[in-house]
């Protein structure tokens, strides 16, 4: 995994999660699959395997480029802007 220019723009330390699950899924009665944490603001959203793809929707609406897995034991990060693991 290579460095991404968006990493330097992220807050340090990383933001605290705003919720423990995807609030958009909970609001519509859907079950989130594989949670993702926005490393700009702490939004927690469901992955693209979920019916509503709230993590990607968050990126589309906010432009926040980098997220990481919010699943136990996982620490990989994804840059939506560069479309790559970082």
| Assigned CATH superfamily | Zinc/RING finger domain, C3HC4 (zinc finger)
Largest sheet report: 5 strands, antiparallel
Please indicate the percent range of residues in DSSP E strands (runs of 2 or more): 15-25%
Q: How many separate helices?
A: 2
Number of strands: 5
Uncertain residue ranges: none
CATH topology (level 3) name: Herpes Virus-1
Explain what the structure shows.
By secondary structure, the protein is α+β, with helices and mostly antiparallel strands. The chain has a single domain (20-85), classed as Zinc/RING finger domain, C3HC4 (zinc finger) (Herpes Virus-1, 2-Layer Sandwich), CATH 3.30.40.10. It has helices at 23-28, 54-62; strands at 35-38, 44-46, 66-69, 77-79, 84-85. Strands 2-1-3-4-5 form a five-stranded antiparallel sheet. The relative contact order is 0.23.
Provide the fold topology.
Blueprint: H1 23-28, E1 35-38, E2 44-46, H2 54-62, E3 66-69, E4 77-79, E5 84-85
Antiparallel strand pairs: 1-2, 1-3, 3-4, 4-5
Summarize the structure.
By secondary structure, the chain is of the alpha+beta class. The chain has two helices and five strands, in the order H-E-E-H-E-E-E. The longest helix has 9 residues.
Provide tags for this entry.
single chain; 86 residues; alpha+beta; Herpes Virus-1; 5-stranded antiparallel sheet; 5 strands
């Amino acid at each position: 995994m290579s460095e991404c220019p968006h990493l330097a723009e992220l807050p340090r330390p990383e933001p605290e999660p705003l919720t423990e699950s995807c609030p958009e899924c909970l609001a519509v009665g859907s079950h989130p699959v594989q949670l993702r944490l926005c490393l700009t603001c702490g939004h927690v959203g469901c992955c693209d395997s979920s019916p509503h793809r709230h993590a990607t929707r968050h990126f589309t609406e906010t432009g926040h480029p980098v997220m990481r897995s919010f699943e136990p034991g996982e620490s990989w990060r994804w840059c939506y802007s560069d479309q790559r693991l970082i």
